[in-house]
Design goal:
By secondary structure, the protein is mainly β. The chain is 13% helix and 41% strand. It has one domain: Jelly Rolls (Sandwich), CATH 2.60.120. Strands 8-5-10-3-2-1-11 form a seven-stranded antiparallel beta sheet. The chain has a three-stranded antiparallel beta sheet with strand order 7-6-9, with no helix packed on it. A two-stranded antiparallel ribbon has the order 4-12. The longest helix is centred in the C-terminal third of the chain and has 10 residues. It is globular and about 35 Å long. The N terminus is likely disordered.
Length: 167
């Protein structure tokens, strides 16, 4: 399908149907999936609890861009560490180990992945929601880190280290 023939997608917002939650403290609202963009990119609205963040990982075929809407988080890309606040943008390139960690009580950010496809990983590690509210309680460590690492590999990524501990 040529990009000129794609339907204009408007009105994508968080709903019970497109939002999923992981007990590690991450809520994903899938605003655009690869099917919406002919595989060019995906866009998620992510709300995360204090301490939430993935294991250090590297993507072989995707770049990520974060735009922070609210809260504060640290971005780790290779040897660089940056604090991100509302209005800040971070680029997390493919083939460079990276992670992030929420350091405020909660943070909300847009996460664009290009090309699309890796959003399937997020679908697999999350569960449907009954409410758009964040569940109570702290972010928890992954119940099955080996499963996360295996799924990451299936989606072309590689876990290269544990999550950053909250300092």
């Amino acid at each position: 399908m040529d990009v000129a023939t794609l339907d204009l997608k408007t009105g994508h917002h968080p709903t019970l149907e497109n939002t999923r939650y992981s007990p590690i403290g991450l809520r994903f609202s899938f605003l655009l999936d690869g099917k919406d963009t002919n595989g060019r990119c995906s866009l998620q609205l992510v709300t995360a609890k204090r301490g939430a963040g993935p294991a250090w990982h590297v993507h072989s075929g995707e770049d990520e861009v974060f735009y922070v809407l609210a809260g504060e988080m640290r971005g780790y890309v290779g040897d660089d560490v940056v604090t991100l606040n509302a209005g800040d943008t971070a680029f997390l390139p493919r083939e460079v180990p990276h992670t992030y960690q929420v350091i405020s009580e909660e943070a909300t950010f847009l996460a664009m992945i290009t090309p699309a496809g890796f959003e399937g990983f997020f679908h697999e590690i999350t569960d449907p929601v009954a409410s758009l509210d964040m569940p109570p309680g702290p972010a928890l460590p992954p119940a099955d880190p080996a499963r996360i690492a295996r799924l990451m590999t299936e989606y072309g990524g590689l876990v290269v280290g544990p999550p950053v501990p909250l300092s």
